[in-house]
Give the backbone structure.
Amino acid sequence: MTDAKPLASGLAGVSLIGAPTDIGAGMLGARMGPAALRVAGIAQAVSQFGIDVRDCGNLDGPANPWQDAVDGFRHLPEVVAWNRLLHDAVFAELSDARLPIVLGGDHCLGIGSISAVARHCRERGKKLRVLWFDAHADFNTATLTPSGNIHGMPVACLCGQGPQALVEIGGHVPALNPRELRQIGIRSVDAGEKRLVHDMGIEVFDMRYIDEMGMRHTMELALALVDANTHLHVSLDVDFLDPDIAPGVGTTVRGGPTYREAQLCMEMVADTGRLSSLDLVELNPALDVRNQTAELAVDLIESLFGKSTLMRKAGAARK
């Protein structure tokens, strides 16, 4: 095990929050993600480090009506309802000095989760760093996307570019300063998104950058200036991973990180000792093979909480 503490200072334990919905996705199935992650042993994977794990069960939001987009958004009222529920649940666990793990569900849930984290940080005077591990930039808007699927819009909404009912969930617009965000593993960006991401000044480490510079250098930059007053949030979309190792997602994009590159990301986050909240989203068991993607996700979570091959001092490998 690593010498680093598995929990950031002041945290009493981990809370699992199930959000079984595919309300923002273009394919059914992500609603089964929380169950698959529990079957894969996520609670046991975290508790093995001596961490108190509280399973808060599943949130009970509206069903997916599976309708066409209205004014550029599919299922907007239902997406708002789910994200308000999640905001309140995540904020309650943060206020109780616990590390919330959101078990998704599709990535539209990042709006509610991260808006709660940002609110928590504002009220406590903490810096925020969000690591967004994803194949997609998720910066679409109603005018840019033909589908209207809101799981392609959470970053835009968090940065204040979206419907009022979503951008205001955390009580502050924008919920997230683009300078607080680092996107890692990106390899699918719509034409209109490219300009918006550039104009917002989001720091993006796409797969070409990772290929050229390496994952270690990428993570060093993504974690630069994270200190004891930083709340580190990880939003892990499992389509970040290459589909050869993680087939159980609805929006696979070839050319993603390898198993070891993904493990290195999690290990370097663990080395900081600052992880304080986590989203685990877009797992679609209907597309998986014998739950292997859920099991891989849980394997990554073990590394995120400190599993390592040898006893190491935090940061020793980077000296």
In short: The first strand starts at residue 13 and ends at 19. The CA atoms of residues 178 and 200 lie 6 Å apart. The chain has one domain: 13-318. The chain has a mean pLDDT of 94.
